Amino acid sequence: KPEERVQFFYLYGGDLHLHAGMFRRIVLDLEGRSLDYLNAGLASACKVKAIEITFEGYEPLEDYKTELLKGLFAAFALQPNQLGPLLSRRLSDILQASPQLRDLGGNDYVCVYINIDKYSWYPDHTPEAARWFMDEFCSSPLNPNQPRLLFFFSVEFEEEDTDLANDVRDKVDDNPKIQALPELNKVALSDIDRWLGKYKKIEPDPRERKKILQERFPGSEHYMIDVQETLQELIKKYNDTLS
């Protein structure tokens, strides 16, 4: 709901699908910078502060919550050891004290990416901590002059760990307050072809683009980690011709 100034999302899938890359894509889209390939001087639509946290959680539940808040306050440039009992703190404390948010207004965004790997996923604790985070920690309403906050709980699992994958899939739709984005899967060859066509100045010759697809992307789908590696090579090669 766009009128809600604090929103929550689950981003989940195998660990080779580059969840952080998806998060950064969302940030670029919010800023309007995903279109700057059409005009390098295109102004940003708004300011977006991106915060990325690698979360390391442990049982019991109270410790799990505390570790989550430690990472969050530190990422916002606030020393958690100087804030007293962290579980008594609220999101409003970050909004009031963080030096990273002072130049943001009501049309801007703060996007927070919280990475949860297989070692920090607990079938009961993780959803319960997320529920507490939404219902209690983020309970204070934001005023229209404060930036919108989007929290992304990113849950990664290994492709072969079917038990964990199925457990995550079962849990991500439990809470109506958090929107589960579609599970990240492999990239279709047609999407890679579309990307090469969109940024055709990197390789203007359609014969060479077909050659790239045939040689670098055999098969019908690929892990994003492999796709990104190859596309970054092409981008670097193109940029080197400009220098």
Helicity, as a percent range: 40-55%
| Rounded Rg | 20 Å
Kindly report how far apart the N and C termini lie: 45 Å
What order do the strands of the largest sheet run in, or round the barrel if closed? 2-3-4-1-5
H-E order: EHEHHEHEHEEHHEH
Helical run tally = 8
Number of strands: 7
What is the overall pLDDT average? 92
Q: Quote the beta fraction.
A: 15-25%
Shape: globular
Q: Main β-sheet, in a few words? A: 5 strands, parallel
Structural class determined from secondary elements: alpha/beta
Low-confidence stretches: none
Describe the fold and architecture.
The chain has a five-stranded parallel β-sheet, with helices on both faces. The chain has a two-stranded antiparallel ribbon with strand order 6-7. With 243 residues, it is of the alpha/beta class. Helix content is 40%, strand content 17%.
Short key terms for the protein model shown above:
two-stranded antiparallel sheet, 17% strand, alpha/beta
